[in-house]
Amino acid sequence: MNAVASHRHPAAAATDVIVVGAGHSGLAMSAWLAAHCVDHVVLERGEIANSWLHERWDSLRLLTPNWQTRLPGFRYQGSQPDGFMATSEVVQFIQNYAAYIGAPVRTGIAVTSVRRDGDGYRVQTNHGDWRCRAVVLASGAHGIPNVPALAASLPASIRSLDAKQYKNPRQLDDSGVLVVGASATGLQLAHEIRASGREVTLAVGEHIRMPRTYRGRDVQWWLYVAGILDQRFDAVDDLVRARRVPSPQLVGTPERATLDLNALTARGVHIVGRLVGLGGRKAQFSGNLRNECAMADLKMNRMLDTFDALAERSSVGDMLGPAERFAATRVDESPCLQLDLAARRIGSVIWATGFRPDFSWLQVPAFDRKGRLRHHGGIVDAPGLYVLGLNFMRRRKSSFIHGAEDDVRDLGEHLLAGLRQQPARMTRIA
To answer: Which residue ranges form the domains of the chain, and what is each CATH number?
Structure first.
């Protein structure tokens, strides 16, 4: 295969398709386009796998086991299929894939504008303009941290960090830390910071509780064999709700440990409800913590019931461990509703409150009244425009690395059909 192109300036000003972003989704689309002889280029603002290189905390590992780490024609080949890749390993995997497929990547090319231009699009970058017939948005779902507006009410003496800015506990003062958000990111950061010796308070809202392993198998194995990861976007009743479901409380460790609120409580993390207000040095929390935890426990047990029923019908049922259930989440009888940040010596607040994609450069009327991109399973509400890598975009697995293969195939076929109906390739820009 050819080596990856990494020129600082585009060699041409026109192509059939421009893919924005050289992460795993953009590269998977590049492989599909190349296999179908579609002329294209991948524009990357930084380096290949840029977000993994520069926008993750140091100790992060994938939540999916290595055997699930695959892209079209390329998969994990190491000796630890049940392990979990560290950030550096994910970067190497994606960069190796780019080299393997000979992806036409142009690094250091930041897209500043995409807008309609005749039958196609004009893509403006920091190194000149391009014209193309179709655009694939593969810049990722984690462009902008969802930091709530009330963060502006924090006293100036308290450091405020989002999950992109946080790297490790050494950044923090030797004081207490409030972590806001209890999905996978929040739990992992609370656990790491508590292990550094700091007092940690974790603000908990809606969350998805999930064991790392069940009956001797990784929970991702169960989700796979149950067909849950392959559930399609057009097979759910409330897609908007499904796309907003928090990421499950999971962590990837060599021990395959379960990390939930009970595990954090046992390590001395102070659990409070959802953060609802900040006034002076006082933080206010919802009184709904008990209900949120009870609902998470109920949903987890329903999921385990599904797994047990599957095991009963399966020929491998006798190879699994016995059915089990986990202790209910422990919550104080009188949960904390207000916290004096000074009395608790809170010196830092970390916002683990999720992300949203950054399409600020997309100048196409394809957004709803809340600023969300309108798309139908990745087919954007604008001709020749596609998006990849969003949560539950076409399937529940769409945001995972291994979810790209099926999504790229579906969208690629739609894209190719559209190209066949359009005029020939754009002419070079004068």
So the answer is: 17-143+357-420 (3.50.50.60), 147-351 (3.50.50.60)
